[in-house]
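On clarity, I found the account of how folds are encoded harder to follow than it need be. Since the whole study asks how a given chain folds, the encoding of that fold should be made plain. For illustration, here is how one protein appears when written out as sequence plus structure tokens:
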Amino acid sequence: MSHLILVRHGQSEWNLQKRFTGWVDIDLTSQGKLEACKSGEVIKSQNIKIDYFFSSLQLRALNTLKLIQNTIRNNNQVEKAWQLNERHYGALTGLNKDEMKIKLGEKKIQEFRRSWNIKPEPLSKSSPYHPINIETYKDLPKENIPDTESLEDTYNRVVDYFVNNIEKKLSKKNNILISAHGNSIRALCKFLFKLDEAKVSKLEIPTGNPLMITFDESNNISNCRYLDQER
């Protein structure tokens, strides 16, 4: 038996401001830090040892994971992967979601946010929000840096990384925790639970509430539940 715990980072400063964040490297709010600590507490209550930790390159996921590790007293090395980053929202990056609903219509914004293969217009490379202008990604090869992404694009990079770097560890009965983002976790859930495109578009991923997936001896999912039952 093995466990995979998926945690969407705690509330970020741009979550609070209702802005499209994507690859912009935004930190946690005070509430987000509390959510991360609560995540650590409910994970600790399961009395399981986490063997491997994975995170995106982004500050909000890394700091969520750091607070979880401090709470559970496990400082094993963290594997950081750009493939686990949030979806890139292209030209929507930095814009307020409510304002864009008024400007473009709620249906269009929902289409951009949750459709499978529709992507927003590319973000200009001159924008300070473009990843090529953000210090976090200075060592990332330019060919790996998108201008915009669909959920399908996000799915392809996330699942490829999961299959090649995480799945084999799970099959060897290791317990693994991934700290990531709404869309990267949504992509993983589509893969793990074999969700179709319509179902995955309706899947909501709450901040700071660990989703624990249990695999049986044959590496099939035997149980799945959110650990913070109050939420």
Summary: The CA atoms of residues 4 and 144 lie 27 Å apart.
